[in-house]
Design goal:
The structure is a single chain. This protein is of the alpha/beta class. The protein folds into two domains: 180 residues, Rossmann fold; 82 residues, Orthogonal Bundle (Adenine-specific Methyltransferase, domain 2), CATH 1.10.1020.10. The protein has eleven helices and nine strands. Strands 1, 2, 3, 4, 5, 6, 7, 8 and 9 form a nine-stranded mixed beta sheet that branches. Strand 5 and strand 6 form a beta hairpin. It is globular. It starts with 18 loop residues before the first helix and ends with a helix.
Length: 305
């Protein structure tokens, strides 16, 4: 199982491309990887591909999303077969593939929240962006330019992910604070919560936002209990900053990771680099490279770009 890190489907906000940079701040071996805001679990997959942890906990408040991950890891061939059935329907559907997407979305919102339906909606929706309305129903629109990941492309990725994680992964759909309370010394928690300023709004691209104050309190409890963690929490592009820094009292070290040129700024005729902040808990700061690595920037260097 060599080559690039596999992924199930495009997912907005995924840390798949940043995973190699983030893993520079992790030890080569540790007990358990815990993701309270897993999304499509890009970091768990990347860590498991390198065999760094013995066990993994995947949690997300979006239960159907966790269902996709569970099916991919525990019953990969069944997931591919079920997805193929849903995906193939669009090519013979009266009204075309766009109307088929809406039909699947309606089925999903009426209770058929199967892994195959969830995966198809993810594969076909705009930018792989999960959105739910105030009524709790999936309301994202289809990307009319593509038909979604083909089952032939999906299968080897899902099989690889299952190979890395089967029989070593727990699945949950709980409030993140419950998951953090379950963490124990020897675990490493990676958190990628909804970014500040883009959650708890109408037609959110996140299933659920979080409040900053309870989050900071939960981090303080992790510190008191000696739990190591990393957080992707805010960032900047050009002179625009997204979110406020986490409090100094937590003792975290902040580094900025180069996420590449902003596609939005390119559309506006500018070349601006996006940086995503990574906060490193006290116990993991020993793994910060002594010499700057190519994609690691200090705050001063970032502002000078």
């Amino acid at each position: 199982m060599n080559g690039t890190t596999p992924h199930i489907v495009q997912y907005q906000g995924s840390k798949r491309m940043l995973a190699p940079q983030i893993m520079r701040y992790l030890p080569r071996r540790f007990g358990r990887m815990v993701e309270p805001f897993a999304g499509m679990a890009a970091m768990t997959i990347a860590v498991s591909k390198e065999g760094r942890a013995n066990h993994y906990t995947i949690n997300d408040l979006n239960e159907p999303l966790v269902g996709v991950l569970r099916a991919a890891i525990e019953t990969p061939l069944r997931l591919v077969a079920d997805y193929n059935e849903v995906w193939s329907e669009q090519f013979a559907y009266e009204g075309g593939s766009v109307e088929h997407f809406y039909a699947v979305r309606d089925r999903f919102n009426q209770g058929e929240q199967t892994p195959a339906n969830m995966l198809y909606l993810l594969a076909r929706c705009v930018k792989g962006s999960v959105r739910y309305g105030n009524n709790g129903q999936f309301n994202q629109s289809p990307d009319k330019r593509r038909n979604g990941t083909s089952p032939k492309t999906l299968r080897p990725n899902v099989e690889a992910i299952s190979y890395y994680l089967k029989d070593r992964t727990d699945f949950m759909s709980r409030d993140y604070r419950e998951v953090l309370d379950m963490a124990r010394p020897g675990d490493i928690v990676y958190m990628d919560p909804p970014y500040q300023g883009v959650s708890n709004v109408r037609d959110s691209r996140y299933f659920s936002g979080i409040d900053n104050a309870p989050f900071v309190e939960a981090l303080d409890r992790l510190n008191q209990r000696g739990i190591d963690y990393l957080i992707s929490y805010d960032g900047q592009c050009g002179d625009k900053h997204y979110g406020e820094d986490l409090p100094d009292g937590l003792g975290l070290r902040k580094v900025l990771l180069n996420a590449g040129l902003s596609s939005q700024s390119l559309l506006l005729g500018r070349k601006e680099v996006t940086f995503e902040a990574l906060y490193i808990s006290p116990g993991l700061q020993q793994y910060i490279p002594q010499q700057p690595v190519e994609q690691q920037y200090t705050l001063f260097e970032a502002l000078a770009v």
